[in-house]
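Ticket #4471: structure export looks truncated?
Reporter: QA, pipeline team
Priority: medium

Steps to reproduce: submit the single chain below to the structure queue and open the exported record.
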Amino acid sequence: MVQANMLEAKTDLSKFVRMLESGEQDVVYIARNNVPVVQMTVIKFPGETQRIGVAKGKFSVPDDFDDWDAEVSELFEVGR
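Actual output as written to the record:
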């Protein structure tokens, strides 16, 4: 939880939004005369998937990725 006064909220609005989006904070309160009057939170839409595909095109799976599966599988089947 973060509490900011009106001047801080005006100056640091984008910082507070980033903190909420990243999950660093779950709520930001904005106060007038040290009395909280506004609560900021992230809007979560039902069924919305976030961050899926964020690395699309930045990584490719090597052709030999599955080559070691048999060896690892044998290691876990000891005593069968």
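Status: closed, not a bug. The export was complete when the record was re-opened. Leaving a note from the reviewer for reference: The radius of gyration is 23 Å.
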